[in-house]
């Protein structure tokens, strides 16, 4: 008697657990069905409740019924998602585990049902078999190869698009290719790469740091030095072979009237810009302009040997009195400012200054601007502390420094202008300004005047073709991002696209818009890439623009005409009252755009949180890409973090191949009527409630997450891809990154689901590419031909930056990456810069 009682209670307890689980599925399933979703969860919930009751009553029918549930679940899962392992996990894993538990002898024997045990055993075996079969193929992967040889259509490679022993600009060169011709590191030896030096800058995020403090710096290697900047706008010169500090400069940035930095939206420095007066000293070109301004229209020569530039100052002043940026001297004699500070760095600071530093000593170049600096707040007007400054490095040509600025999103409708300014590289004098709110008047603005408030800005790096004499601007938006009823004609013309300006005058040459009436924060986020593209019609001067929406727009950089076709596709309509949406949106034939989401794409760690995600999906508005923001909440997919962001792409002009990372995260955009927003509400970061002061709506922004904090859409959430530019097609695409640093507990491994990366790629003449920006803390190296991951180095902090490469004095090829983390991306913060090389 006692034995039978003891045998009863385990079955009763397990039955109660099944009843509770079934109730959760049935209740949630009923809600889902009422929203037009799948009936599976309701039916499965009722069946599991019944199975639990039978189990508690110790009826053998419990095993038969649960076997039926498991077989039905397996069939439903295969019908919805096929042999996709990560999609099958939340559907089948826990039901299969419950089936295994039911087969354990503690309760199975008391049920005395051999037939039920066999049926359930077969269901468990079938589930395990499907799990094994799903390992044989990954539907998220595209297998293929890129060409290994130079294009047959191209005889030479433009040297302005290739970095070599040095890395003199943010993107390698002003073409932004992120490509180096160095070939010492190859697929055959990349596995031998080892860390050879590591430094800590001392610039770490403190308790008063903004939510989005980041270390996104790409170092420069030039002038026998490695130059870096830090989050708090400090500049440092390092030894390229050892990382030893030569000098450091602290601009001592101001809080701009705030109590501290905690209320700022951002704090970052993506890089410095470098200028060498000797680089152009022997130029014999004649510069012709119609504005008597500098135009820099020349092919960039090799970097000049600084030792040959030891010229007597008195002689120069005698031969070239009053030399300034407007003189047409052939060859141009260096100015007095060049002689006093011939090699210089330009440092943008978080308190809106541009500082010129002697690259040899780290001291201010006193003849530039006001004691070595320019006040970038001039003519800008009022703004909140941290609400305007250049997060990206300026672009430097023979005679100009060109830069835009970050403007805080969704704070108000009265934010600073997005003006682009070109300063004399020698003196800091303003040469021209291009304000999209007043696009035809580029003459320098006088004292007491203010640039057009709230006009679209450029926060990403700018590219220049000095040979064509053109500047390429990746345009942002007028704020707020999600409500545009009051935008001007100029806002609608120049936002979310690519604008080409004349280098000499700042006048518009052409414009191509990538998003019409952007309501999704799809500003153009990355440096345009300039490449001479081999086509069947001959080599064309191309510009490739990566975008958040996933398209790679390929245009003729001289005319703005598409090289790869761009189609206007129908877009959802129905904006909130007072606003409007465009009927069509431009989509490039070359894109990494994911398929539209469906309910079956919703994901979770278990059937329960997956069901909740499916409820969210059906409760929110979603009609595909460009679903307008709404009061009930709209899904934005790809989300406003973008398929591609500020890290951009890397292009090999020899192979005519492109390497990039791609992110796939859905966001939710919910408009909040002004009367429902209380004073003091609002997030300091770009997620949460954005107040949009002056607009009729605030907006709540955030990723589409499950109750467990996981993305609601199924992985992959991040890939790497290789693209054949001549064929304009994706040659290969693979999941990239693991969950190692995203789990609530620390494990030495993670699941290879493919995670987002926020950072830029690098590719080289050796046939290897690098990326470090993933949520897990690794620098990875890949075979660009196949996409195979060949190298992985553990980083001490998040690597949300772009690796670069150069040759050291010892003849070795180095790869260097910043590992400093990203505040809102959620990675480990730090202050590291790390160098890698092959063994000596």
What features would you describe in this structure?
The protein is α+β, with helices and mostly antiparallel strands and 840 residues long. The chain is 18% helix and 24% strand. The protein has a five-stranded mixed β-sheet with strand order 1-36-37-38-39, with no helix packed on it. It is globular, with a radius of gyration of 29 Å.
Task: Output the keywords.
840 residues, alpha+beta, five-stranded mixed sheet, four-stranded antiparallel sheet, 10 helices, 42 strands, 24% strand
Helical content stands at 10-25%
Strand content: 15-25%
Question: Which outline best applies?
Answer: globular
Average residue-wise pLDDT: 90
Taking Cα atoms only, what radius of gyration do you get, to the nearest Å?
Answer: 29 Å
Between the first and last Cα atoms, what is the distance in angstroms? 79 Å
- Please work out how many helical segments DSSP would assign: 10
**Biggest sheet descriptor:** 5 strands, mixed
Classification by helices and strands: alpha+beta
The largest sheet has its strands arranged as 1-36-37-38-39
The total of beta strands comes to: 42
Question: Which ranges are low-confidence, i.e. pLDDT below 50, for 5 or more consecutive residues?
Answer: 283-332
Topology:
Layout: H1 2-34, H2 40-56, H3 61-81, H4 85-102, H5 105-111, H6 114-133, E1 179-180, E2 194-200, E3 212-213, E4 220-222, E5 225-229, E6 235-238, E7 245-249, E8 266-267, E9 273-276, H7 313-319, H8 336-340, E10 343-348, E11 353-358, E12 373-375, E13 388-389, E14 395-396, E15 400-403, E16 406-407, E17 420-424, E18 430-434, E19 463-465, E20 470-474, H9 489-494, E21 497-502, E22 508-513, E23 529-535, E24 538-546, E25 552-556, E26 566-570, E27 584-588, H10 607-619, E28 634-636, E29 650-652, E30 657-663, E31 667-673, E32 688-690, E33 697-703, E34 718-724, E35 729-735, E36 761-764, E37 768-771, E38 778-783, E39 789-794, E40 804-807, E41 813-819, E42 832-837
Parallel strand pairs: 1-36, 3-8
Antiparallel strand pairs: 2-42, 4-5, 5-6, 6-7, 9-10, 10-11, 11-12, 13-16, 14-15, 15-17, 17-18, 19-20, 20-21, 21-22, 23-24, 24-25, 26-27, 28-31, 29-30, 30-34, 31-33, 32-33, 34-35, 36-37, 37-38, 38-39, 40-41, 41-42
């Amino acid at each position: 008697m006692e034995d039978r009682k003891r045998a009863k209670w385990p079955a009763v307890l397990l039955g109660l657990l099944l009843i509770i689980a079934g109730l959760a599925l049935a209740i949630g399933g009923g809600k889902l069905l009422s929203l037009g979703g799948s009936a599976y969860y309701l039916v499965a919930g009722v069946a599991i409740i019944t199975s639990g009751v039978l189990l508690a009553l110790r009826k053998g029918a419990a095993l038969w019924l649960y076997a039926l549930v498991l077989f039905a679940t397996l069939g439903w899962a295969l019908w919805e998602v096929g042999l996709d392992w990560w999609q099958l996990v939340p559907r089948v894993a826990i039901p299969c585990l419950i089936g295994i538990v039911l087969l354990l002898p503690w309760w199975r024997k008391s049920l005395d049902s051999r037939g039920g045990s066999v049926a359930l055993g077969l269901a468990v075996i079938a589930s395990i078999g499907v799990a094994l079969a799903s390992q044989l193929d990954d539907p998220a992967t595209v297998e293929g190869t890129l060409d290994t040889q130079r294009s047959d259509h191209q005889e030479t490679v433009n040297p302005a698009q290739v970095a070599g022993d040095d890395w003199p600009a943010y993107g390698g060169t002003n073409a932004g290719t992120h490509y180096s011709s160095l070939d010492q590191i190859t697929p055959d030896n990349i596995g031998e790469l080892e860390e050879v030096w590591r430094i800590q800058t001392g610039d770490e995020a403190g308790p008063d740091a903004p939510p989005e403090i980041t270390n996104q710096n790409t170092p420069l290697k030039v002038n026998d030095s490695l130059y870096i900047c830090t989050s708090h706008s400090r500049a440092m010169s390092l030894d390229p072979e050892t990382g030893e500090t030569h000098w450091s400069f602290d601009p001592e940035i101001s809080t701009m009237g705030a109590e501290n930095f905690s209320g700022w939206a951002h704090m970052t420095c993506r890089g410095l810009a470098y200028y060498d007066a000797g680089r152009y000293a022997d130029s014999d070109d004649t510069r012709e302009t119609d504005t008597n301004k500098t135009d820099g229209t020349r092919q960039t020569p090799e970097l000049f040997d600084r030792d040959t530039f030891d010229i007597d100052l008195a002689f120069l002043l005698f031969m070239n009195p009053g030399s300034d940026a407007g003189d047409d001297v052939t060859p141009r004699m260096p100015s007095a400012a060049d002689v006093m500070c011939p090699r210089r760095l330009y440092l943008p600071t978080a308190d809106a200054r541009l500082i010129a530093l002697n690259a040899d000593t780290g001291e201010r170049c006193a003849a530039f601007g006001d004691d070595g600096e320019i006040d970038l707040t001039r003519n800008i007007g009022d703004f909140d502390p941290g609400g305007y400054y250049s997060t990206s490095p300026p672009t430097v040509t023979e005679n100009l420094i060109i830069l835009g600025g970050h403007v805080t999103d969704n704070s108000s409708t009265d934010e600073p202008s997005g003006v682009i300014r070109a300063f004399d590289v020698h003196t800091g004098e303003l040469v021209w300004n291009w304000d999209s709110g007043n696009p035809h008047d580029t003459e320098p603005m006088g004292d007491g005047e203010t640039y057009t408030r709230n006009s679209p800005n450029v926060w990403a790096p700018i590219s220049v073709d000095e040979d064509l004499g053109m500047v390429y601007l990746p345009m942002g938006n007028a704020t707020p991002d999600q409500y545009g009823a009051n935008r001007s004609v100029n806002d609608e013309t120049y936002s979310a696209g690519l604008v080409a300006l004349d280098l000499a005058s700042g006048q518009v040459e052409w414009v191509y818009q990538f998003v019409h009436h952007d309501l999704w924060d799809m500003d153009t986020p990355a440096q345009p890439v300039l490449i001479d593209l081999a086509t069947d019609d001959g080599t064309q001067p191309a510009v490739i623009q990566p975008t958040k929406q996933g398209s790679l727009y390929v245009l003729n950089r001289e005319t703005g005409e598409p090289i790869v076709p761009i189609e206007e596709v129908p877009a959802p309509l129905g904006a909130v009252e007072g606003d409007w949406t465009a009927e069509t949106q431009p989509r490039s034939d070359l894109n990494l755009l994911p398929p539209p989401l469906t309910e079956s794409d919703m994901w979770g760690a278990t059937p329960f949180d997956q069901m909740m995600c499916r409820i969210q999906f059906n409760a929110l508005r979603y009609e595909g890409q460009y679903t307008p923001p709404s009061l009930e909440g709209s899904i934005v997919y790809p989300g406003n973090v973008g398929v591609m962001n500020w890290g951009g792409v890397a292009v090999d002009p020899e192979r005519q191949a492109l390497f990039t990372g791609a992110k796939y995260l859905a966001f939710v955009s919910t408009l909040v009527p002004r009367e429902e927003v209380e004073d003091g509400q609002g997030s300091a970061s770009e997620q949460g409630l954005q107040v949009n002061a002056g607009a009729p709506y605030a907006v709540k922004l955030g990723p589409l997450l499950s109750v467990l904090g996981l993305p609601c859409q199924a992985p992959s959430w991040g890939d790497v891809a290789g693209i054949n530019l001549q064929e304009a097609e994706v040659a290969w695409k693979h999941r990239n990154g693991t969950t190692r640093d995203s789990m609530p507990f620390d494990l030495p491994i993670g699941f290879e689901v493919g995670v987002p990366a926020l950072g830029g790629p690098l590719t080289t003449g050796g046939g290897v590419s690098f990326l470090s920006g993933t949520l897990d803390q690794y620098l990875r190296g890949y075979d660009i031909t196949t996409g195979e991951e060949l190298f992985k180095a553990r980083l001490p902090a998040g690597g949300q930056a772009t690796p670069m490469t150069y040759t050291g004095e010892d003849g070795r090829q180095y790869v260097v990456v910043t590992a400093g983390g990203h505040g809102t991306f959620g990675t480990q913060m730090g202050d590291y810069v790390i160098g890698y090389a092959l063994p000596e």
